[in-house]
Design a protein that fits this description.
The complex is a heterodimer of chains A (about 375) and B (about 400). With about 375 residues, chain A is α/β, with parallel strands linked by helices. Chain A contains 14 helices and ten strands. Classes of the chains: A alpha/beta (about 375), B alpha/beta (about 400).
Chain lengths: ~375, ~400
C-alpha cells in the first residue's frame, strides 16, 4: 500500500514572497528578512533581503560566501537561491537532516531554464578568451543538477536525487517525483522545490509576453504521514495526487482538463469537492486557456480562486512550487493570504481540498491536489 | 504492473540504427575520430561525432538527434505512427547540455529575429516539446537534466509513469550534442584524455567525448502482449542516490552508487547473486573508475571480480546525458545477441579496479539479467536492472 505524503515545511524565497506569505496570521511561517538571514547563517552564508519590487532580481552579495565551506563558495547564483529556499523549508519543518539516515532523505528540484545563465557565462568567457581559457569553476556549474548537488552536499542528503527542467511545470514535476519516492517506500523524507533566475537572454526572449517576470525558489519538505505525526510537527496538507499531460496550442486546455481529471480520479474526489483553486494565471495569453481548461474539467464551480502570480510575478519553474505552498498554507491555517485580493467572505471558509492547475510554456499542463489533514 | 522494452532507436558515432549498433558492439568497432564540426581549440580533437542528416534547421541539432532516434524506436516497436496509442503515451527525455548550440548562436547574434527564434529552442524542455509535438504524444512529457545520469533517470521516470497507470506507452531516453561548451569545459577541468579512452586501465587519463541519442519504447506488458509486440527486455527496477561528497568527483568509497544499485535491486526483487552482467559508467578518469569499482565491490562482495563487466565509452565516446540510455540499450542488444561487448583500448587493468572487465573483443556469453550503472556531476548515481523476458512470459 502506498504511503501517504504530507507537507511539513515551506521555504519561499522571491521578491515579494514576504508580502504574499506573511499575511497568513495564524501561521508561524516566516519569510521576512530575518528569516532569510537565519537560513543563510545556518549555511554560513549571508544574503540581502529580497527586493520588494517584482522584476527586480534577488540580490545576493558576491562576497557573502567567505565563511562557507570551500565547495559551497563555488556555487552559482541559481544554487545559492535554491539553497536559501531549502534552508527555509527545513527550518520551517524543524528538521535536522544530520539526525536522519542520509539515505532516507532525498531531493528533487524543478527549473524552467536550469543552468542556462551559467552556460551563457561560460560561453561568453570562451568566446572572449578562447576555448583553452574557460573557467573550470563556472564549468562545474554548467549542469542543471549542480544546485541539488550542492544542497545535498551542504545538508548531507544521500537519497534519491533528481533535477527536472520540464519548462514552467518543472516545480510540480519535482513535487510529483518526491511524492512518488515516499509513496513507494524508498525514503521517508524529500525536499522538493522549484527555482529559476533572471538572465539577459531570458528577459529579452520573454519581453512583451508577460506583465511581471520574476525569479526565486520555493522548497517544500515532504514526509510520510506517520513519520511526521511521530515527530509531532505541523502538517500543512496532504499531497493526494499529481499529474502531467501535454498538448500544444488549443490542445493545451484539453491537456489541462485531462490533468485535472486524472488527479480527481486517482484521489477518489469529484469536481464538486474542490473548494479552492490556486491559479497559475500570469497575465499572459494563456490565462484564458487555463479558464477554459478548468471549466472543461470542473464544470460550473463554486471554488474560490486565488492567483499568487499577481503578487509574485511569473517565477517560471518555481511557480508551481509557490502555488503549492500557498495551497498548503491555506489548508493548514484556514485563511487565504489577504494580499491575494479575494473577497473577505471567502477567506472565512476553511478549504478542505485545493487544486493547483498549471500551464507550461511548452504546451504541457499539470495539476496537483492537496487535502487538509485532520 | 510490468514494463517492457518494445522499441529501440539509436544514433551514435559508430551506428545509426539498433542493428548497426549491435554489429558494431560485437565487432568492437569504434566511431572515435577527429572532430570536424567545430574547431576544438585544443591540440587533441578526438570525439565520437554522429553523421546526422539535418532535416529541420529551425530545430536545435540535439532535437534532431532525439527525433531521429524516436522515429526509429516507434518504427521498431510496430506501433502505427498515427495510432490512437499516442493519446496514452508520454515522453521522458534526459539531456545534460541540451540545446547548447542554439544558446551559443543566440549569444553571438545581434539579429533580433534570429535571437527570438533561437530563444524558443534554448530551454532544455524544447527537445521533449519538439519530439512529443512531432509524434503527437499527449501523455506526461518530462525533461530530466541530471548531467551524465539524465537518460537513466528519464527511463526510471518513464518506468514509474507506466507502473502508476499514467501511460501505457512511454518513449524514454536522451540526447546530447558535442559542443564547444563541453569540449572546452572538460578540457580545462583536465578530465579529457590526451590519447585514447582506457576505462579501468592502469594508464587511463580521461574521457573522450561523444554525442548521440537513444530512445526506448517502454510499454506496459499487457498492452505489448495484446498487440503481439516483440519484446526486447523487461525493465525490472531502478534506483537513484546521491554522494553528498563533491561537485564533480564521486565519493571514493562508491557509497552513493552502491546505494543506487541496492535500491534498484530491491525494486526489481533481485538478489545481487542474480546479476549476470554489469554495464558500468567507466569514464576512463582516475576518480570515477576507482569509485565505481569500489561500489561494485560493496554490493557484490567476492562476485565483484567475477561478474563480466564493461564500459563502452571507448567505442562511441562519453555521450553525457545520452550515456545512460545508449549503454543500457547496448546491454539489451547484447543480451539478445548472446554476447558482451568489449571495453576497447584497455590493455592493462588497473589493479585497484579488481573487476572482470571484458576487453579487447566481445565475449560470447548468454545471460538473462543485467545491471547498468551511471554516475554524474553533483554526486548523482542511477542504476537500472533489466532482464530477458522468460519464454513462458513472452
Amino acid at each position: 500500500m502506498a504511503h501517504r505524503v504530507v507537507i511539513t515545511g515551506i521555504g519561499p524565497f522571491a521578491p515579494r514572497a514576504a508580502e504574499l506569505f506573511a499575511a497568513s496570521e495564524s501561521t508561524s511561517l516566516r519569510v521576512d528578512e530575518s528569516s532569510s538571514l537565519r537560513a543563510f547563517e545556518a549555511a554560513s552564508l549571508r544574503v540581502h533581503e529580497p527586493s520588494s519590487q517584482s522584476q527586480a532580481p534577488l540580490r545576493i552579495r558576491d562576497d557573502a560566501m567567505i565563511h562557507a565551506a570551500p565547495q559551497l563558495r563555488q556555487m552559482d547564483r541559481l544554487a545559492r537561491i535554491a539553497l536559501v529556499a531549502a534552508e527555509l523549508a527545513l527550518a520551517d519543518a524543524g528538521l535536522n537532516v544530520a539526525l536522519l539516515d542520509p539515505e532516507l532523505i532525498g531531493i528533487a528540484l524543478g527549473s524552467g531554464y536550469g543552468c542556462l545563465a551559467t552556460n551563457a557565462d561560460y560561453l561568453d568567457g570562451i568566446r572572449d578568451r578562447g576555448a583553452r581559457r574557460g573557467n573550470p569553476i563556472i564549468f562545474q556549474n554548467t549542469v542543471s543538477n549542480a544546485a541539488t548537488g550542492y544542497i545535498s552536499l551542504a545538508k548531507g542528503i544521500r537519497g534519491p536525487n533528481a533535477t527536472m527542467c520540464s519548462g514552467w511545470v518543472a516545480g510540480l514535476e519535482a513535487l510529483d517525483f518526491g511524492v512518488r519516492q515516499i509513496a513507494d517506500g524508498r525514503v521517508q523524507t524529500m525536499i522538493v522545490g522549484g527555482v529559476d533566475q533572471l538572465f539577459p537572454a531570458l528577459v529579452d526572449g520573454l519581453s512583451g509576453r508577460l506583465t511581471q517576470l520574476s525569479e526565486g525558489s520555493c522548497f517544500l519538505v515532504l514526509e510520510e504521514l506517520e513519520t511526521a505525526r511521530a515527530r509531532g510537527v505541523r502538517i500543512y496538507a496532504e499531497v493526494v495526487a499529481g499529474s502531467h499531460t501535454s498538448g500544444s496550442g488549443a490542445a493545451q486546455e484539453e491537456a489541462l482538463a485531462e490533468a485535472i481529471s486524472i488527479v480527481l480520479l486517482e484521489s477518489g474526489h469529484v469536481a464538486e469537492d474542490v473548494d479552492m483553486i490556486v491559479s497559475g494565471r500570469n497575465g499572459s495569453a494563456t490565462d484564458s486557456c487555463e479558464t477554459r481548461g478548468l471549466a472543461r474539467a470542473l464544470g460550473p464551480t463554486q471554488a474560490r480562486v486565488c492567483a499568487p502570480k499577481r503578487i509574485l510575478g511569473e517565477t517560471m519553474g518555481s511557480g508551481g512550487s509557490f502555488a503549492v505552498a500557498v495551497a498548503a498554507l491555506t489548508l493548514e491555517c484556514g485563511q487565504l493570504p489577504a494580499t491575494l485580493q479575494i473577497a473577505s467572505e471567502y477567506a472565512a471558509a476553511r478549504p478542505e481540498l485545493v487544486l493547483v492547475p498549471l500551464l507550461g510554456n511548452d504546451g504541457s499542463a499539470a495539476a496537483t491536489l492537496l487535502r487538509r489533514v485532520r | 504492473m510490468r514494463v517492457v522494452v518494445t522499441g529501440i532507436g539509436v544514433l551514435t558515432a559508430n551506428a545509426s540504427s539498433a542493428g548497426e549498433f549491435s554489429d558494431a558492439l560485437r565487432a568492437g568497432r569504434s566511431g572515435i575520430r577527429d572532430i570536424t564540426r567545430f574547431d576544438t581549440g585544443f591540440p587533441f580533437k578526438l570525439g565520437g561525432e554522429v553523421q546526422l542528416e539535418e532535416s529541420d534547421s529551425a530545430l536545435d541539432r540535439v532535437s534532431q538527434l532525439a527525433i531521429t532516434a524516436a522515429r526509429q524506436a516507434v518504427e521498431d516497436s510496430g506501433l502505427p505512427a498515427d495510432g490512437i496509442w499516442r493519446k496514452r503515451a508520454g515522453l521522458c527525455i534526459g539531456t545534460s547540455r541540451g540545446p547548447a548550440l542554439s544558446l551559443e548562436t543566440l549569444l553571438g547574434s545581434s539579429d533580433a529575429n534570429q535571437r527570438q527564434a533561437l530563444f524558443e529552442e534554448i530551454p532544455f524542455s524544447s527537445i521533449a516539446r519538439n519530439v512529443a509535438g512531432l509524434l503527437g504524444l499527449t501523455g506526461p512529457t518530462t525533461t530530466v537534466t541530471m548531467a551524465c545520469v539524465s537518460s537513466s533517470l528519464a527511463i526510471g521516470n518513464a518506468f514509474d509513469a507506466i507502473r502508476r497507470g499514467r501511460a501505457e506507452v512511454m518513449l524514454a531516453g536522451g540526447a546530447d550534442n558535442l559542443t564547444n561548451l563541453s569540449f572546452s569545459g572538460f578540457s580545462v577541468l583536465r578530465a579529457m584524455t590526451r590519447s585514447v579512452c582506457r576505462p579501468f586501465g592502469r594508464n587511463r587519463d580521461g574521457i573522450v567525448l561523444g554525442e548521440g541519442s537513444g530512445i526506448l519504447v517502454l510499454e506496459e506488458y499487457g498492452h505489448a502482449m495484446a498487440r503481439g509486440a516483440t519484446i526486447h527486455a523487461e525493465i525490472c527496477g531502478w534506483g537513484s542516490a546521491g554522494d553528498a561528497h563533491h561537485a564533480t568527483s564521486p565519493a571514493p568509497d562508491g557509497r552513493g552508487l552502491a546505494a543506487a544499485i541496492g535500491s534498484a535491486l530491491r525494486q526489481a526483487c533481485l538478489a545481487p547473486e542474480e546479476i549476470e552482467h554489469i554495464n558500468l559508467h567507466g569514464t576512463g578518469t582516475t576518480a570515477n573508475d576507482a569509485a565505481e569499482s569500489n561500489a561494485i565491490h560493496r554490493v557484490f562482495g567476492e562476485r565483484a571480480s567475477q561478474i563480466p563487466v564493461n564500459s563502452l565509452k571507448s567505442m562511441f565516446g562519453h555521450t553525457l546525458g545520452a550515456a545512460g540510455v545508449l549503454e543500457l540499450t547496448a546491454s539489451i542488444l547484447a543480451m539478445q545477441g548472446g554476447f558482451i561487448p568489449p571495453t576497447m583500448n584497455t590493455e592493462e587493468l588497473d589493479p585497484a579496479c579488481d573487476l572482470n572487465l571484458v576487453r579487447g573483443r566481445s565475449l560470447e556469453h548468454d545471460f538473462d539479467v543485467l545491471l547498468s550503472t551511471k554516475s554524474a556531476f553533483g554526486g548523482a548515481n542511477v542504476a537500472i536492472a533489466a532482464r530477458r523476458l522468460s519464454a513462458g512470459s513472452n
